[in-house]
Amino acid sequence: MRSPDGSLGIRLAIRPLKRLRIDYDDPHGSVQDPNHIFPLVFESLASRLAGGGHAPSSPYPPDQAHAKFNADWAAAAVFDTVPEFSAEHKQALLVAIHRNKVADAYLVFLFDDYANVKTTLQAAMNTLVFTPSAPAPNQPQRPDAG
């Protein structure tokens, strides 16, 4: 996707955890739980998209991850892109969100001048969120649930 003026490109990937398969060849270890590997996948993805270059990242505090994305975990990284990933834009913001037992989702915002796309980027960032959890069957809803 891209903004109408072309100044902001958006790519996204959603990976349902039920479809995730982990091949693990260590006979002395155990396969990692998909609900525990998301920080490693995020760091690896940021490094690959930056062509192995510097990709400073920061996790969201848990309360912000939940409030902003309805996620159990979220993080962001900013880096210069490599031409193999984007020939049109020189910089990227990678946002990763994770919901336990549901999915990992990745948003990549591509741009050349952050100041020029800041408003559009902030509005677009709020479009990918996990749906609120439904109460378990035969469980009362919280009084503040609506």
Quaternary state of the chains: single chain
Tell me the major beta sheet: 5 strands, antiparallel
Euclidean distance between termini CA atoms? 32 Å
Order of helices and strands: EHEHEEEH
- Mean pLDDT, to the nearest integer, reads 81
Shape: globular
The strand order across the widest sheet is: 1-5-4-3-2
- Which strand-content bin applies to the residues? 25-35%
Number of distinct helices? 3
Helix content: 10-25%
**Unreliable stretches:** none
Per DSSP E runs of 2 or more residues, the count of β-strands stands at 5
User: Which class of secondary structure composition applies to the elements?
Assistant: alpha+beta
Report the radius of gyration as a whole number of Å: 17 Å
Give a short overview:
With 146 residues, this protein is an alpha+beta fold. It has helices at 38-49, 62-69, 114-125, and strands at residues 9-16, 57-59, 73-80, 91-99, 103-111.
Q: Could you characterize what this model shows?
A:
With 146 residues, the protein is an alpha+beta fold. It is 22% helix and 25% strand. The protein has a five-stranded antiparallel β-sheet with strand order 1-5-4-3-2, sandwiched between helices. Strand 4 and strand 5 form a beta hairpin. The chain is globular, with a radius of gyration of 17 Å. The mean pLDDT is 81.
